[in-house]
Amino acid sequence: MWSIEQANAWSEEVGWLRGCNFNPSTAINQLEMWQAETFDLVTIDRELGWAEDIGMNCMRVYLHHIAWEVDKEGFKGRMKQYLEIADSHGIKTIFVFFDDCWNATYKAGKQPEPEPGVHNSGWVRDPGDLIFLDENLMSLLEVYVKDILTTFNDDERIVMWDLYNEVGNNNLGITSLPLLRNVFRWGWEIRPSQPLTVCVFGRHEALTKWEKESSDIITYHSYSQPERHQAKIDELKRLGRPMVCTEYMARPRNSLFSNIMPMLKEQNVGVINWGLVAGKSNTKYAWGEPIPDGSEPPLWFHEIFRPDGTPYKQEEVDLIKSLTLN
Asked: Which UniProt key words apply to this protein (predicted)?
């Protein structure tokens, strides 16, 4: 693990991070993004160009071990292609390995079509239920993580590694602790030049302890209004490490660009909202509030741009540019 001094030196070097969780609008999930048949460089290039235009300098991007397992060298080649395009737009990358959110099962190949009006209907966990069914999977995941970290361990286009998203979500709780411990151990054995982190999620005391005490950089999620968000910052500041909010911005919950982004910039907390362009993920729709006919929600939950590149709210884009380009 990095010392606090190393972490703060990194923060001074990279400056204020601001960006989005990125999945191209043509991909319903991580597998559709990364599999060879549906890897869409044209859309990735176009949409990252829109991010560049509003001053974003990083993207948080989810991987999936199945895409690697099916085609190891091709998968790493596509990661390199992605990094080349992102770098051409002045955008650094945060890669995410594992995830406890949304659908518990998955398979390689053609992915399902979106369910109309359903938020993230096709997003898949990694490793999901397979971790409880395949006794050999943990060993495979070790090879996967070490292969990726070794391949990209000195790549300056990668600003950090997010080892595991929202550990223990979907009522998994403490059952996710073995993988959490292992992924940090694997990361430490390779010890890439980039920092390692897991967001402080707070679903179980033992998990939270690992998240806080093992991360080089403190990352967290908050879809709350400004007062609650600030309280979380105040709590985590006590750890003395640089901080990045790697998920925020849900308009109906009063987590907005207008009331969160300026607050975090003032405190030099990195700020990464969920969603760039509305598309197959359906994350313009709210959690647990489906609109079965797929019609436009009264207020978008996430996303900045429509599929044609026009802003959902011009005043939001103007505000973002005032914070990022000045």
From this structure: Carbohydrate metabolism, Glycosidase, Hydrolase, Polysaccharide degradation, Xylan degradation
> Which residues face 243 on adjacent strands?
218
Give the up-direction half-sphere exposure of residue 25: CA atoms within 13 A in the CB hemisphere: 20
Cα 108 from chain centroid (whole Å):
21
Find the farthest-apart pair of alpha carbons in the chain and give their distance in angstroms, rounded.
53
| 203 within 8 A of 171, measured Cβ to Cβ | no
For the chain, which domains are there? 4-324 (3.20.20.80)
C-beta of residue 259 within 8 angstroms of C-beta of residue 293: no
CA distance 52 to 19: 9
Q: Is the pLDDT of residue 326 over 90?
A: no
Token pair, residue 246, equals 């790697």
Residue 88 pLDDT > 80, yes or no? yes
Separation of CA 204 from chain center: 21
Find all residues with CB under 8 Å of 262, minimum gap 6, and list them.
319, 323
Q: Which residues pair with 158 in a beta bridge?
A: 93
Instruction: State pTM to two decimals.
Output: 0.97
- State the Cα–Cα distance between residues 175 and 286, nearest whole angstrom: 28
Query: What whole-number distance in Å separates Cα of residue 305 and Cα of residue 143?
Result: 37
For residue 127, cis peptide bond before it (omega within 30 degrees of 0):
yes
Tokens read off for 98: 């594992």
Distances (CA, A) of 23 to 76, 253, 276, 278: 17, 22, 8, 10
- The arithmetic mean of pLDDT across residues 196-215, rounded, is 93
Residue 243 near residue 217 (C-beta atoms within 8 A): yes
Please tell me what DSSP assigns to residue 114.
Answer: P
* Backbone phi, psi, residue 280, to 5°: -70, -20
Q: DSSP letters along 141-173, please?
A: HHHHHHHHHHHTTT-TTEEEEEEEESTTTTTTG
- Is pLDDT at 203 greater than 80 in this prediction? no
**Contact yes or no for 278/294 (Cβ under 8 A):** no
